[in-house]
């Protein structure tokens, strides 16, 4: 007889041995997930084969309709919320009302992918226990885990009294503008919930499944340096000064040498300078012109900033501003941060307590306990918008590799493993008094 841990690694196995640490309902959930593995893979294939690049608004809405078809039969009231004025399709919100006095769970995932209709990477391809496809892990694998877990809860009877709200955003990969409007509904849902669970992908470190009690922020910045233009023979003189490019180089060098600290990164992704320099309206392309014998008048750099807390972000921004203001001779410079951006999900005591709860599930399943992933190894995510208000845990989606690239590949057994973990964790949390 296989152990439960082996069963979760082999989702085609249907026999579940009795586990003294699992309740009868929990044993039924594990059996249901295992029995429905091929159904779950088929759902993942359908989701992947419908292109839903963020800017494919109709495609995003079609994936939303597929998820509606899965959630409504489970007793969820499903609403499509269009996002006019943000340049994005909209969000799917599903609500299951349970007992009034128990905890309210917020499940977060996203409908969109980075692969637009003109990408050559468009179809699901199964390769034994793996499958390749656009969004197979990020985040159509995560949405498949949500459905698999909820179906198991429904079968076991633990969904009936559960208060669960699901937010599947249509623009996680490239948020709509203004982001305050694009994320208003999610933030409001966080304020009325008790626990948030993020279903973006599971991360492994050294071969071990990890959980995320923290995710870093993501903000974009622009430094614009100016100088006195003129004949290059006069550079570095009191009359001519250092020029814009040397001023920008000074600033970036000091960023690199003076800013580093734990959990902080600051990339420079675009740079241009010359007699003239400018950015396009999307701030992703730059143009410049100049000559070797002309002191440059303008230099521009674009980059990002990732921090682990609001306090760290404020402190680092102040240091950046002080560096920018310490001008080289005959130059000027300014620092600007783009509006919006993703906040940090700080590693709170409450988040760590959720990981403790998840590890209790792991022990009862006969699976190894999960450590907290170093947040430097994860990017920003939608769960960060609600993390300031409630306890949050991320990384409940599938395990995949090569995300955001043409080799994005999901490990299919991770659907069963993650769905079983999630179903039991959600059932236990949803039964607790508020």
UniProtKB/TrEMBL annotation:
Keyword Phosphoprotein: no
Pfam families linked: M20_dimer, Peptidase_M20
Region forming the signal peptide: 1-20
GO molecular function annotations of the record: carboxypeptidase activity; metal ion binding
UniProt keyword Hydrolase, yes or no: yes
InterPro entries linked: ArgE/DapE_CS (IPR001261), Bact_exopeptidase_dim_dom (IPR036264), Peptidase_M20 (IPR002933), Peptidase_M20_dimer (IPR011650), Peptidase_M20A (IPR050072)
Residues of the Peptidase M20 dimerisation domain: 214-330
Protein name: Glutamate carboxypeptidase
């Amino acid at each position: 007889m296989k152990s439960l841990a082996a069963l979760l690694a082999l989702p085609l196995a249907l026999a579940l041995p009795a586990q003294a640490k699992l309740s009868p309902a929990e044993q039924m959930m594990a059996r249901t997930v295992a029995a429905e593995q091929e159904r779950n893979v088929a759902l993942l294939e359908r989701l992947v084969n419908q292109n839903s690049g963020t800017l494919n608004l109709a495609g995003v809405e079609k994936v939303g309709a597929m998820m509606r078809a899965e959630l409504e039969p489970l007793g969820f009231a499903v609403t499509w919320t269009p996002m006019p004025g943000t340049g994005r399709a909209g969000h799917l919100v599903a609500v299951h009302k349970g007992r009034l006095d128990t905890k309210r769970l917020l499940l977060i995932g996203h409908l969109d992918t980075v692969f637009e209709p003109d990408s050559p990477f468009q179809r699901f391809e199964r390769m034994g226990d793996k499958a390749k496809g656009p969004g197979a892990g990020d985040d159509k694998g995560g949405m498949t885990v949500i459905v698999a877990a909820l179906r198991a809860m429904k079968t076991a009877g633990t969904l009936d009294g559960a208060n669960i709200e699901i937010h599947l955003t249509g623009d996680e990969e490239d948020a709509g503008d203004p982001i305050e409007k694009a994320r208003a509904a999610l933030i409001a849902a966080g304020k009325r919930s008790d626990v948030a669970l993020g279903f973006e992908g599971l991360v492994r470190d050294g071969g071990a499944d990890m959980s995320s009690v923290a995710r870093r922020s993501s903000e974009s910045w622009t430094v614009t340096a100016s100088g006195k233009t003129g004949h290059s023979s006069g550079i570095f003189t009191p009359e001519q000064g250092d020029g814009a490019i040397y001023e920008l180089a000074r600033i970036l060098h000091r960023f690199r040498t003076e800013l580093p600290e734990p959990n902080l990164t600051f990339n420079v992704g675009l740079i241009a300078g010359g007699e003239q320099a400018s950015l396009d309206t999307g701030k992703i392309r730059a143009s410049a012109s100049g000559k070797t014998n002309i002191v440059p008048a303008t230099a521009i750099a674009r980059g990002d900033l990732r921090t682990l807390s609001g306090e760290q972000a404020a402190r680092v921004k102040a240091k950046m501003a002080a560096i920018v203001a310490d001008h080289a001779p005959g130059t000027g410079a300014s620092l600007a941060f783009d509006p919006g951006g993703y906040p940090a999900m700080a590693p709170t005591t409450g988040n760590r307590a959720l990981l403790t709860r998840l590890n209790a599930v792991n022990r009862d399943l006969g699976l190894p306990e999960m450590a907290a992933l170093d947040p430097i190894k994860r990017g920003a995510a939608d769960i960060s918008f609600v993390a300031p208000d409630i306890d949050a845990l991320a990384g409940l989606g599938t395990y995949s590799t090569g995300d955001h690239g043409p080799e994005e590949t999901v490990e299919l057994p991770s659907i069963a493993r993650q769905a079983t973990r999630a179903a039991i964790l959600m059932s236990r949390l949803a039964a607790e008094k508020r």
